[in-house]
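Subject: Predicted fold for Multifunctional protein ADE2, 382 residues

User T.R. writes:
Posting the sequence so we have a shared reference for the thread.
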Amino acid sequence: MLNNESQIIPHRLYYKKLSRETYLRPVCAGIKTSWVRSNNKHTYMSRRCHMVPIEWVTRRVATGSFLRRHPGVNEGYTFTPPKMETFFKDDANHDPQWSEEQLLEAKLMVGDRVVGRLEYDIMARTTVAVFKVLERAWATLDCALIDMKIEFGFDAETNEILVSDTIDSDSWRLWPAGDKRLMKDKQVYRNMGTVTEEGLSQIKRNFQWVADKLDAFMPEPQGLVVVLMGSASDASHAEAIKTHCTKLGVSCHLRVTSAHKGTEETLSIIAQYETCGRPVVFVCVAGRSNGLGPVTCANTCAPVINCPPLKPDSMSRDIWSSLSLPSGMGCGTVLYPEAAAQTAATMLGLTDHVIWAKLLAKQLNLWVGLKLSDKDVAAGNQ
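User M.O. replies:
I've generated the structure tokens; pasting them so everyone works from the same file.
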């Protein structure tokens, strides 16, 4: 124990690399966890939590215990959306499955907080979000995440609900290329009729395979947003777009060019980024008569977004140069820097699972914030 807030958690043998990197994945996406930082190769620092005695399981494919509990369902059935289940941690009774109603009626006291409707909803939604983040990451490595479990804790100091678990090959099923015969998880051990040295060696090789794959689990982001502003006077608007891009893990370049006053230079800048070898989205910031967006759109196949820095007294007039476009133009228009950054990130996230994960985490955190706000406001109705 380091202090009242954090604790040292030792990694298990063979999991030290796997656990650290996989725990980082939801953290880097922006999902709230108890992880603080790696301490060394064998330990990491974590917020001290009161643990919720529930395993939260998310399934994409029906297999394993689900088939035994649901006769008639064929192995391989795909759950869309993913199916979430809860199991009470009770070794003596083999961790029985609990329904939503059972969990709520149990009124579990964790620390000084009862697990009620609000807590259940937040943990359930976060469970599925964590699964989707890791599922998409594994898919880029041609490996299917079949199902997984996580656990939660309530921060001992703030009472905040946090993912508080080490996610490793004891937590999930992984089928490379979606082929069950190639499974790389702990199920290999469970399937062993007799434990042998060769069998244990195979499990070790499987776990090492997972650890090696994680070297490519979080690639450097390739997507790029290029903000073209028609004048340096638009810099504050452009900088706000860059700030929001950064929050979403998107690189952003700012350039000044005028389609009216320097058309050749504008086309030259567009050409530079078209050949940079990275997925690019252009965001055009030009007020009054916006020629920058349409000219950019007409001369690139990359996505183009208009985000004019309009002023209240002239908005109803100037907005039309961004909305009313010649035929063959396809650049959309948003009014706020955050919307421009998020629209660009959504486009880049189609091929970048790291950006996609940050967008999903942002949606989750906004949803949680609304739930907490509603709780605070509703409390005044008593």
